[in-house]
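User: I'm preparing a small set of examples for a lab meeting where we compare how different chains pack in three dimensions. I only have the primary sequence for this one, and I'd like the structure in token form so I can line it up with the others. Please keep the answer compact; I'll paste it straight into my notes.
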Amino acid sequence: MTQQQEQTTHAEPHARPRGVWYAVAGVLVVIALGAITRFLEAQVPVWADGTAFDRVAKSIEFPVYAIALGLIGNFVLSRLALRDALSQGFRTEFFIKTGLVLLGASINLKVLVTAAGPAIIQALLLISIVFGFTWWLGGVLKLEDKLRALLASAVSICGVSAAIAAAGAVQAKREQLAYAASLVIAFALPSIFLLPWLADVLNLSDEVAGAWIGGNIDTTAAVAAAGALAGEDALQIATIVKTTQNALIGVVAIALTAYFALKVERKSADEARPSLGQFWQRFPKFVLGFIAASVIGTLYLQWATDGKATIATVNDLRTWFLIFAFVAIGLEFSLKGLREAGWRPIALFASATVVNIVVALGLAVVLFGNFEVS
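Assistant: Understood. Below is the structure token output for the 374-residue chain.
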């Protein structure tokens, strides 16, 4: 045995425990920053109460704090030369997938029946039109396929959650997911105040305003904030419409998996199609967990006396996992991919948002014009 081999052999028992401790330390960093995120989410609106920043503070969602703190942690750990060593404990993918499975529990399939007809029609048409436009324009702008899949999913379905699901389906880079999440947040915040104001200017009924808000704003929390500004009836319709769109996350993830496996990643038409085994290997398994959680949550709400309290606990746990996911995204973030993308993703998302606003308004007027909240 050579001297180098002896040194390697003797080093292995010490390297493994050190690697474990680095992983544990990385997880603890994520948890600590996640706890600070939750603290800021609760306290910033209290601190801003009665000030000029009152409305803005109440509309800021946890991804803003989580990504910002993750980026700060990224900078500090990089300066201390610790980020690479601790990165094995960030576990971004695990946090994301667990959070999405838990999200399924809040998709009550029974609630959707309340406005099943118009809400489902609007969701299907809106997603198809906006996703198709965004995908097409992304091709015209020559964006990388995985990034335009994330942006198309985010703007057409439900923002960050849809981008996360799409990222798992197409195996996107973390930088691309962080970019998509940042664009969702940047465009959702002004929409909270803009759409209720426009609904009032256009003299829309509460039902039409709610359907417009629920179909257009890309995050559930922002929809709730805007719906509350528009009125109680508008809030109910907005919630149902957004929930209907949320329920289609799994369907879109499955479709993207098939499209990328069968077309985008095949080098030529002569290349053999992926087998069922290969398709299953790359299929995002968490989608099945999402669907199962939705079914279980729906049945539990129907049969259990404490169903709402239990689902609320699950939703809180989901929020924690998604906070950890966004913190980890910030910790692992790299500017390299964003520099390469340049201005085109912003132009794409802005254009798609305008189309989404116009199409969602037209569908809301047609489908909810004569609808009344009972």
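A couple of notes for your slides: The chain has 19 helices and no strands. The chain has a mean pLDDT of 80.

User: Perfect, thanks.
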